[in-house]
Amino acid sequence: MMLGHLSPQTPDKIMALMQAYAADPRTDKIDLGVGVFRDAAGHTPVMRAVKAAEERLWQIQETKTYTTLAGDPAFLSALSDLVLGQESPAERRAAIATPGGTGAVRMGLELARLANPGTRIFVPDPSWPNHAAIIGFLGLERVDYRYYDARARSLDTGGMLVDLERAGPGDVVLLHGCCHNPTGADLTAADWRAVAELLTKTGALAMVDIAYQGFGDGVQTDATGLRILVTALPELIVATSCSKNFGIYRERTGAVFVLGETTKSRDMAQSNLTMLNRQTYAFPPDHGARVVTEILNDADLRACWQAELDGMRLHMQRQRQALADTLREMSGSDRFAHLGAEKGMFSLVGANPEQVERMRAEHGLYMIGDGRINLAGLSLDRVPRVAEAMLAAGL
Ligand code: PMP
Fold it and tell me: Which residue segment(s) compose the domain that 205 sits in?
């Protein structure tokens, strides 16, 4: 029997954690695992601007016939302005809509493989685990580069620049645009400039995965690094997601943008990206894309979205700061100060797998095995309990 030849796949760790959390009868359990935004009441709301855009679409949409294989041009244009900036050269830009940021990462890597089947993908250590999974599935070689010094609890920019010297023409350097997952440690503008200079020298191709634009310092500021690369480099791949900043996780909304050195190389990239969409799922999902377009192209909806996104960002920042302050008071040490300074939803608390298990078993505190916490899963009243559990586990 053919199907008998299948071998079991390791289950997704975060999904397994979610199931364990759901099955835990303790009423005071705390979920800092799964990467979705939560408000003060613990909900992941539909954003007001999204509801309004959906209502508008319901009224005005007269057909749901197929869009183009690359996705709705109005969506790609509006999202490109948001992500790459309005100065990005349209005549050098290719684009496809994709099912979420995961689809964008997959298609971006597929494009790199089409351009060079032997390409090596340089990935920050640590990174979102699906990067390694997709790279491995595509049969590409992964090279980890130093990014975060777990002992110092900070970026290892020096180590990163040394390791990236080894990426040459035909290789891809994957970078997180902002709100690095899982560390929350982001490159400074000076670091981005140093990376741009290095890539100009080595000829390696940058691929920026930006899944949390607006969760760090604001929707424009979070794209600073990416835009430094847009200006400095002849070629660039960008994978973007609307899941988090529009709160439309299940609508599967994202895009790949590619900058080519010339209009001709742009056309070649566009032809290959369109083919990738066609032979994978033909037309990308459209509902979320249309919601995003409505919001970005309407001044009132855009202002409403911007205000709510700013509120989400500040909510996460307050919880970060509260946890860092409480841990400083309780431990009498500054070793958790990084939690207050890092960006976005995630940080590493510096726990080993045994300590993570202990916090789960003894305190009902759920986090990912590498000690990643989702700061949006906290709420201010639970900060002391979380801090206590962390210190009791020996952090
Ligand atoms: N890139 C990174 C770094 C992420 O953390 C995520 C979400 N977990 C994604 C891409 C993909 O996001 P989605 O497919 O949900 O849009």
Answer: 66-297
The total number of structural domains in the chain stands at: 2
Q: Ligand 1, residues 130, 222, 237, 238: which to mutate, most atoms within 8 A of Cβ?
A: 130
Taking each helix axis from N to C end, the angle separating 73-84 and 287-296, rounded to the nearest 10 degrees, works out to: 60
Are 120 and 172 members of one domain? yes
**CATH number for the domain including 362?**
3.90.1150.10
Check whether residue 280 and residue 362 sit in a common domain.
no
Q: Are 45 and 247 in contact (CB under 8 A)?
A: yes
- Give the mutation target among 34, 79, 102, 209 for probing the ligand 1 site: most ligand atoms within 8 A of CB: 102
Least Cα distance to 32 among 344, 355, 366 occurs for 366
Give pLDDT tens digits for 53-111: 999 999 999 999 999 999 999 999 999 999 999 888 899 999 999 999 999 999 999 99
> Can you list the alpha helix ranges (DSSP code H) found in the chain?
13-23, 48-60, 73-84, 100-115, 129-137, 157-164, 189-202, 224-232, 263-281, 287-296, 299-331, 337-341, 353-363, 383-392
Residue 372: beta bridge partners? 348
Among the three residues 268, 297, 326, which one is the final residue of a domain in this structure?
297
Same structural domain, 282 and 239: yes
